[in-house]
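Feature request, filed as a ticket because there's no other form

It would be nice if the structure record came with a short human-readable summary line next to the tokens. Right now we just get the raw output. Example of a typical job, pasted below so the devs can see what we mean:
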Amino acid sequence: MSWPLGIFLFLVTIAAMEGVAYVAHRWVMHGPGWFLHESHHRPRTGNWELNDLYAVIFAVPSIVLIFGGVQAGWWPGCTWIGAGIAAYGAIYFGFHDIIVHRRLPSRYLPKSAYMKRIVQAHRLHHVVETREDSVSFGFLIAPRPEALKAALKDRGRKGVRAAALAEK
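Raw output as currently delivered:
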């Protein structure tokens, strides 16, 4: 496979993963997978939470595709797609775990309007402690915070953590 086509597949996969992440977050993590994801909507008591198992689950397709493309004789595009999934995972980890949730020490402060928007959108997602009535399920694409606040208000602030209500 040519490098340009491989890089194209890699970049398209990264972009497509935002849609996959939205669907998985909205209808799996806040659906039947809530038993794992619920830990992420509660204060963390240690370095790890049950929700971290999703990183392992979502890494499996990437590993299988890279292995298949490199070792098992599958179509070479599988390697590039697997690498795109892994790259999205790395971007997600940097944004979600380091920038938003500060799970590793960082001095980074969002300065651009885009970074401020996605960080605030994710924080608004976390003011809801229940699996229903949350807002903003994407990670790299997010609605304006004003729209998210209005949606929370329209839902009667159901599931919103008490501390978040006290701030209003």
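Something like this underneath would help us a lot:
Helices lie at 3-29, 34-37, 53-70, 77-100, 113-125, 145-154, 162-167.
DSSP finds seven helices and no strands in the chain.
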